[in-house]
Amino acid sequence: MTCRPKGWDDWRWQMANRIRTPQQLANTFPRLAGGPDLTSVAAKYPMAITPYYASLMRRADSSDPIFQMCVPRVQELTDPPFLMADPLEECHDMPVPGMVHRYPDRALVIATTMCSTYCRHCTRKRIAGTRETSITKRRLEQIANYLTEHPQISDVIVSGGDPLTMSTEHVEMVLSRLRQVPSVQIIRIGTRVPVVLPMRITDELCQMLRKYHPIWINTHFNHPQELTPESIAACNRLSDAGVPLGNQSVLLRGVNDSPQIIEKLCRALVRNRIRPYYLYQCDLVRGVEHFRTPVSRGMEIMEYLRGRLSGLAIPTFVVDAPHGGGKIPVLPTYVVSQSPTHTVLRNYEGMLIAYPEPQQRFDGACRTPQEESAPGVWELAAGQYSRIQPEKTIRHARRQPCCTSDESVGDF
Ligand code: SF4
C-alpha cells in the first residue's frame, strides 16, 4: 500500500500542496530534471497539479495521458496564426463582465479564474489561473439583476475556472443568489474537481448542494485512467445527493483520440452513473495546437461507437464554432437518399434500408402556436422565412433596390 502524506484526503491540503513551478515538478519527477526549460511556458500559461492528480501518472513522459494533460510543454508557445486567445468570442457576448449570454435561454457565469489543476488543453487558457480570483458579491448582484431583467434565461451554468475550488460558503453565496431569480429553473455547475481533486466532494458540499436543486453537474473525464476509486466515490456522493452527472470530454491528440479509448471511457462513465454528454473537438485556442485532431477523427470515433454502445453511452460530437457560432453537432451521415415515398437509411453495419413514408400527405398534425423567432434554419424549413441573407457580400452591395419585375429589366 502506498504511504500518503498526512492531509492527503483533505482537499485544502491538496490545494495548498499543488505543484506550481517547473522546479517543484522536477523535484516530484526527478527524471524531468535536465529536460526542456518550462519556465517561459508556465509563465505564459500557469501550471498547477494536485498531488492526487500527479499520482495518477504511470510514466513521467508524454506517453502518459495524465502527464500530457497537466504538464506544460514547449509546444504551447508555437501557434499557427488562426489560433485565438478567445476563439468562442465569449468576450463579445458578455453583457455583464463575467457572464456570457449567447443562447436565448442560457447564460454562463464565470465564477472564478482558479482551478486546482490547470489543464494544458483548456479553452479558457486566457483567464484560467492568470489571477486566482473569485466572484464578488457586487458582481454577482449585477449578474442576478441581468437575469431578472431577462426572464427568458432559465438555465444558468456556473463555470470558471473551476467553481468548486471556491469554499463551500462562496459556492453557496452564488447558488443562493441565483435561486432567488424566479425565472432561473436549472443551475448547472461545470467542474473538473471529481477528476483532479475528488476529495473536494465532501459530505458538507453535497448537503449544501441539496438545498438548491435542481442542480446538475457536468464534469470532465477525458481518459479511463482518470476513473479511480477516489473519483468514482466522489461521483457517487454527488449522484446520491440527487445531482445528475454529465461528462464533457475533449478529443486530444495522443491522449484519447482512439475509438477504443473513448469506448472504454464511455462504458466506465455510464457504469458509474455519469452520462457521456459532449465529445468536443479541440477549440482553436492558442497554446493547444499540439492537441488538435482532424474533425474527421471525431467522425470516425462516432462511427465506431454507434452500434457498439447503447445510445445512453454515446456523447454528441460537437465543434464549438469559432466566432461565437456555438456548438455544432457533427455526425456521420445515416440518410443515404430520399424520395417523396421512401427514405433510404444505412445502419452502422452498412446495411441499407428503405423506410416507406406515410401514404397520406403530412401537414404537421401536432403543430402548436409558435412564438415569433429570429430567422434560422428551422424557420426556413417551416416556411416562416424565405431566405437568410449574409450581410456585406460584394454581390449584395452591388445590387440596386428595385420595385417591380419590369424595372428589374432596366434600360438597354
Ligand atoms: S478545470 Fe476546466 S477551466 Fe480549469 S484548466 Fe481545466 S479545463 Fe480549464
Can you describe what's shown?
- The protein has 412 residues and is of the alpha/beta class.
- It has 15 helices and twelve strands.
- The chain has two domains: 11-75; 90-329, TIM Barrel, CATH 3.20.20.
- The strands form two sheets. A nine-stranded mixed β-sheet has the order 1-2-3-4-5-6-7-8-9. A three-stranded antiparallel β-sheet has the order 10-11-12, with no helix packed on it.
- Helix 6 (137-149) runs parallel beside helix 7 (168-179) and helix 11 (259-271) crosses helix 12.
- It is globular.
- The site of iron/sulfur cluster has 10 residues, from loops.
How are the secondary structure elements laid out?
Layout: H1 11-16, H2 22-28, H3 39-44, H4 51-54, H5 65-70, E1 99-100, E2 106-110, H6 137-149, E3 155-159, H7 168-179, E4 186-190, H8 193-196, H9 203-210, E5 215-219, H10 229-240, E6 245-250, H11 259-271, E7 274-280, H12 295-305, E8 316-321, E9 326-329, E10 335-338, E11 342-346, E12 352-356, H13 377-381, H14 394-398, H15 405-409
Parallel strand pairs: 2-3, 3-4, 4-5, 5-6, 6-7, 7-8
Antiparallel strand pairs: 1-2, 8-9, 10-11, 11-12
Helix pairs in contact: 6-7, 11-12
Bound molecules: iron/sulfur cluster (SF4).
Iron/sulfur cluster binds near residues 115, 122 and 161.
